[in-house]
Amino acid sequence: MKRFPILISLTALLAAVGATSCKTTEENYRKAYETAVAQRQEATGIDSTIYGRIRNSANTSTLLVDGEELPMRSEYIGYDAKGGSSRDNVKKYNIVAGQFRQIFNAKQMRQRLMDAGYDSAMVVHTREPLYYVITQSVSTPQEALKAWRKVNSDKGIVLKSPLPFILMPAHFRK
Fold first, then answer.
1. Over the stretch 31-77, which tens digit does the pLDDT of each residue have?
2. What is the chain's percent helix, strand, coil content, to nearest 5?
3. Residue 85 and residue 134 in contact, taking contact as beta carbons nearer than 8 Å
4. CA–CA dist 55, 64 (Å, integer)
5. pTM above 0.85, yes or no
């Protein structure tokens, strides 16, 4: 009978020690979360994929026109006849008002732009592919500034950062 109270006391002591030593804290959660995030980025880092290398090949810069800096990218692009683009009608400076992963969405935006008076709207694509909707394609930086300002101030076009920007096809780079 003397064993029973000792056994109960010993069990209670072990339970108390176990309960306090297994307690999780916010700091433990944070460390585990940061470790998991770091491991995930390392394992699935976008730069380790072909798409990451394509994105990194895009040259991001600014175009300085009359003292104003315009965001500009230079990338290799392809043309889509059904999207209104061809090597003949894409010039050096192209004002991009939309970018999509699905061509269907890009073509819908192109049609809305054409209905709103942007008659030369067209769709081009990158190697990823990303589909860019261009409102206007022009030959000079001054024309690009004027077209960029028009798109940027048009309340009928919903623009999300980094839009609008100037796209220079890579074959125009020197």
1. 777 777 666 655 545 445 555 555 555 567 888 899 999 999 999 99
2. 45, 25, 30
3. yes
4. 23
5. no
